[in-house]
C-alpha cells in the first residue's frame, strides 16, 4: 500500500500546506515536491497526478480523523455524550490544523464531480458513525423514535460542516472547539423527546 512508503506522509503534509496556501488549481506538483523536499519525479512514484494527491490526502487525513472519532466515542456511555464527543473532535481536529480545514472546506468543494464522488466514498464511514449515534439515541428512548435517520444525519453533518466553513471564512478569529457545547445543545434540543 502506498501510504506505508516512507515519503508518503511527507508529500501529503506538504500538499495540505501548498493547496491551502495557493488553492488547488494553482498548486503545481513541483510546488508540492519542493515543499516536501523531494524531487518532482518522486511524487509520481506515489501518485498518478495532482488529483490523486488530493484524493489520497483526503483519504489519509479523513481516515485518521474518523478512526480517532470511532475510538473516542466508543468510550462514551450514551448517544448524547457520543454526539458531543463527535462534535468536539470534529471541531478540535480541524481547528488544530488550519491548512487542512481550508483544503477540506474550500478546495475540495471546487473539485470536479468524479473527484467529489471519490471524496463522498471516504465520507460514508463518517456518516455511518453519525447514524449509529442517532440509532443509539432512538434505542435509548432519548431521541424521537420517528426520526428520519438519513435527514438527521444530513442535518448533523451539515451543521458541523457549515460551522467549520464559517470559521475558515472568518479567518479563524475565534476558537472553533469552543462552539462544540452550543452546537451540541442545539442539535440535542431538536432530537430529544422532551
Protein architecture, described:
By secondary structure, this protein is an all-alpha fold. The chain has one domain (50-189): Orthogonal Bundle (Tetracycline Repressor, domain 2). Helices cover 74% and strands 0% of the residues. It has 9 helices and no strands. Helix 1 (8-22) packs across helix 2 (29-36). It is elongated, with a radius of gyration of 18 Å. Residues 5-65 form the HTH tetR-type domain. InterPro entries: Homeodomain-like_sf, HTH-type_Tx_Regulator, HTH_TetR, Tet_transcr_reg_TetR-rel_C_sf, Tscrpt_reg_YsiA_C.
Chart the SSEs and their pairings.
Elements (H helix, E strand, L loop, with lengths): L7 H15 L6 H8 L3 H7 L3 H25 L4 H17 L2 H10 L5 H28 L8 H21 L10 H12 L3
Helix pairs in contact: 1-2, 1-4, 1-6, 2-3, 4-5, 4-7, 5-7, 5-9, 6-8, 7-8
GO molecular function, one term: DNA binding
Organism: Sediminibacillus albus
Keywords: DNA-binding, Repressor
The CATH class label is Mainly Alpha
In the CATH hierarchy, the architecture is Orthogonal Bundle
How many structural domains does the protein architecture include? 1
Structural class estimated from helices and strands: mainly alpha
What proportion strand?
under 5%
* Corresponding CATH superfamily: Tetracycline Repressor, domain 2
Supply Rg. Answer: 18 Å
Total strand segments: 0
Oligomeric form: single chain
- At the fold tier of CATH, the topology name is Tetracycline Repressor, domain 2
The largest pleated sheet is described as:
none
Shape: elongated
Total of DSSP H or I helical runs spanning 4+ residues? 9
Order of helices and strands, N to C?
HHHHHHHHH
DNA-binding region: 28-47
GO molecular function, one term: DNA binding
Pfam family, one: TetR_C_4
Keywords: DNA-binding, Repressor
